[in-house]
């Protein structure tokens, strides 16, 4: 694998009539890493990817692969492999689908068998796609992206519909592709779905960038809190108010915006309230993700 | 461009639609060329019995039956290449395969040109199938009544050649129609309604008046029949005697194919694919 190709999104805006799907979005996806492109449904992820791949025209801004827009790439499938929606003609077999794509892109036909092998679909090659499960369609879509042995992979929700074994397989597969120096961009609406396979994250909400950086930088965001509960909730609430602590009502007790359990325990002691539980709440990545996309949201 | 044409051929040949339509074409043409040929042969052989049965054929005396029967391949069979050409475009929208198609070839004009060129060839292949059927069954029916089959005449084979050209052009018209009307159901309804009801009625209505007749001969089906050089419409409406020259008919068909494809290519084909 020679030098990698970065994906560069600069000031990208896409409007559909009065609706703004993506607004002034800028970020870069570096080669050699798996980047998660995250955001809730309707955040503008798919629109961004479609503009990047030349399927939709941007209202403003650019989206390029190493400086070139998709339609200017001399041999697009040998630079970029993209899977957007796992849509196929139902009457065509898996092998014939790949043959058609290979012919259109000028890729030698022997690659068809190789990519079928690579995604573990050789035994289904002669079956019509109409009978495939969503997981098998996802694998065939992935095989299609690999036909040109591209240096950049763009996958929209590739984990959707995969069984646990398939999810484990694709995680390792994406990592191995990135280790070969390829640029790998994977979208998802769930951080938990991709957090074990991505190195970097780009998070958008309502068409705007809310965060980009390494996965570990996101972890630091997750501020710890304390859970406290007792038999007499009103008195406990009064004690927390007295101590000037912020809290919300949770199922297992009050969630107090205070990392030190000792401070919360002391507040209860001062109020003379009996406690049934007092422990730190480990807030996960998903919480900080939801907090981030929530900010840009309602 | 060569790659796009090749890919479009593969798309046609890797799904079942082409041979389903080819089978229906063969059945339809065989029924009309063979059946009509046998019926007309019988009335020519037994004019008295036919008249007694009320079957007073309006067949003018001296008309050559062979070209009439053979031309069924295109005069009724043209709907099949149109359908296949339209489906080549609309099925990409219906099955949302345009994404994959445009990723492999982001220059959309090249993709549409590939469809246009490949459907010309597919239409010609349907022409070969259709005329093999109409000549086979029609000649068999005529021979059974000891009538002239015209198989030895160069005129007959020139008609077959022009008919195959007409079928090729109809395939390209289908591509243009599909590009204009990407909704598959709507495109199929338009093809069936126009070819089976609207145009036949227009042609007969137009033939009632000299002015409309001169416009009516530019209707695609009329132009196609002019190109082929024979059609049962010529007998059904003898008033419309001033058909176009065969090459004019061919140009009209090619023009329709080109204009619809270009307009479709500049409108629906350029839209965002989402």
UniProtKB/TrEMBL annotation, chain A:
InterPro entries: AAA+_ATPase (IPR003593), ABC_transporter-like_ATP-bd (IPR003439), ABC_transporter-like_CS (IPR017871), P-loop_NTPase (IPR027417). Keywords: ATP-binding, Nucleotide-binding, Transport. It comes from the Bacteria. SMART domains: AAA. Pfam families: ABC_tran. The keyword Transport applies. Residues 7-231 form the ABC transporter domain. Gene3D superfamilies: P-loop containing nucleotide triphosphate hydrolases. One of its GO terms (molecular function) is ATP binding. PANTHER family: ABC TRANSPORTER, ATP-BINDING PROTEIN. Belongs to the ABC transporter superfamily. This is ATP-binding cassette domain-containing protein.
UniProtKB/TrEMBL annotation, chain B:
Keywords: Membrane, Transmembrane, Transmembrane helix. The chain crosses the membrane at residues 20-42, 68-89, 120-144, 164-194, 247-269. This is ABC transporter permease. It comes from Agromyces tropicus.
């Amino acid at each position: 694998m020679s030098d990698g190709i970065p994906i560069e999104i600069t000031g990208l805006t896409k409007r559909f009539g009065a609706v703004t799907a993506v607004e002034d979005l800028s970020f870069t996806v570096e080669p050699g890493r798996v980047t998660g492109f995250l955001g809730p449904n309707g955040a503008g992820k798919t629109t961004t990817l479609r503009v990047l791949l030349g399927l939709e025209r941007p209202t403003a801004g650019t989206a390029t692969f190493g400086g070139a827009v998709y339609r200017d790439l001399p041999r697009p499938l040998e630079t970029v492999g993209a899977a957007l929606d796992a849509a196929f003609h139902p009457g065509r077999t898996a092998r014939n689908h790949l043959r058609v794509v290979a012919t259109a892109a000028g890729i030698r036909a022997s690659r068809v068998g190789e990519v079928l092998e690579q995604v573990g679909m050789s035994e289904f090659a002669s079956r019509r796609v109409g009978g495939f499960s969503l997981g098998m369609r996802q694998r065939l879509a992935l095989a299609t992206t690999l036909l040109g042995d591209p240096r950049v992979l763009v996958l929209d929700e590739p984990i959707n519909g995969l069984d646990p074994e398939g999810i484990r397989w694709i995680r390792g597969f994406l990592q191995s592709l990135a280790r070969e120096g390829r640029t790998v961009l994977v979208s998802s609406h769930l951080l938990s779905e991709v957090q074990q396979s991505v190195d970097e994250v780009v998070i958008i909400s309502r068409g705007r960038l809310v965060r980009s950086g390494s996965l570990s930088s996101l972890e630091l965001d997750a501020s710890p809190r304390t859970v406290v509960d007792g038999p007499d909730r009103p008195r406990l609430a009064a004690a927390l108010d007295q101590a000037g602590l912020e809290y919300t009502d949770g199922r297992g007790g009050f969630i107090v915006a205070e990392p030190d359990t000792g401070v919360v325990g002391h507040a209860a002691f001062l109020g003379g309230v009996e406690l049934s539980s007092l422990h730190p709440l480990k807030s996960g990545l998903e919480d900080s993700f939801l907090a981030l996309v929530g900010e840009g949201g309602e | 461009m060569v790659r796009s044409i090749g890919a479009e051929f593969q798309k046609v040949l890797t799904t079942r639609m082409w041979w389903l339509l080819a089978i229906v074409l063969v059945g339809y043409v065989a029924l009309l060329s063979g059946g009509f040929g046998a019926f007309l042969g019988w009335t020519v052989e037994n004019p008295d019995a036919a008249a007694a049965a009320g079957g007073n054929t309006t067949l003018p005396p001296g008309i050559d039956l062979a070209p009439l029967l053979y031309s069924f391949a295109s005069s009724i069979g043209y709907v099949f290449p149109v359908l296949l050409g339209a489906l080549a475009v609309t099925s990409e929208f219906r099955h949302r395969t345009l994404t994959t198609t445009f990723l492999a070839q982001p220059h959309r004009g090249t993709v549409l040109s590939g469809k246009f060129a490949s459907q010309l060839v597919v239409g010609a292949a349907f022409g070969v199938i259709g005329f093999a059927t109409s000549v086979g069954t029609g000649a068999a029916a005529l021979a059974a009544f000891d009538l002239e089959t015209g198989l030895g005449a160069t005129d007959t084979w020139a008609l077959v050649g022009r008919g195959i050209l007409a079928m090729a052009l109809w395939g390209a018209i289908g591509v243009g129609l599909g590009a204009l009307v990407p909704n598959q159901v709507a495109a199929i309804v338009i093809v069936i309604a126009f070819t089976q009801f609207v145009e036949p009625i227009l042609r007969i209505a137009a033939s009632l008046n000299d002015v409309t007749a001169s416009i009516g001969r530019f209707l695609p089906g009329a132009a196609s029949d002019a190109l082929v050089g024979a059609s049962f419409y010529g007998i059904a409406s003898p008033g419309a005697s001033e058909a176009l020259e065969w090459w004019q008919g061919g140009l009209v068909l090619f023009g329709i194919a080109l204009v619809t494809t270009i307009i479709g290519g500049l409108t629906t084909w350029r839209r965002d694919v989402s």
